[in-house]
């Protein structure tokens, strides 16, 4: 039995479904392992114009950071890292989508801690499913590696043996299910 999955994203607005989506990150810790976390609160939409051109916009609630450790989460929300009191959200607005073999690259402007930089996410489109009685859904995976220092997150705690407590490169991985709006 083959699943019915369409390959085209139809014209209109597709809202990110936070129940079936995730915003994840990982960063080196003590040079030997990784700390992983999520942002549990976010929203966004994919808009497909009449000519088929897609655009994406999304907002992440920085205060929803979750690494399964309250003390670490509080430190991440503080001025050393995200400074969530002054910068409560991060945002992404696409500027282009381009083919890359069987996948895509999603270019856009990412704003974090008041700093906006162009980023390019590797994007996989998993197709469209008719859904389960609530309308069509589309699935995507996207990822990007960012340097946290490019966004003003410069906290450094050097280790006596060399290196740092927190790595500079942060991998962001998005698992997205979007629901076609009526």
From TrEMBL:
Pfam families reported for this sequence: YceI
The organism's taxonomic lineage, starting at the top: Bacteria, Bacillati, Actinomycetota, Actinomycetes, Mycobacteriales
Similarity-based family: Belongs to the UPF0312 family.
Record protein name field: Lipid/polyisoprenoid-binding YceI-like domain-containing protein
InterPro entries: Lipid/polyisoprenoid-bd_YceI (IPR007372), TTHA0802/YceI-like_sf (IPR036761)
Annotated ranges, domain Lipid/polyisoprenoid-binding YceI-like: 13-179
Highest taxon, organism lineage: Bacteria
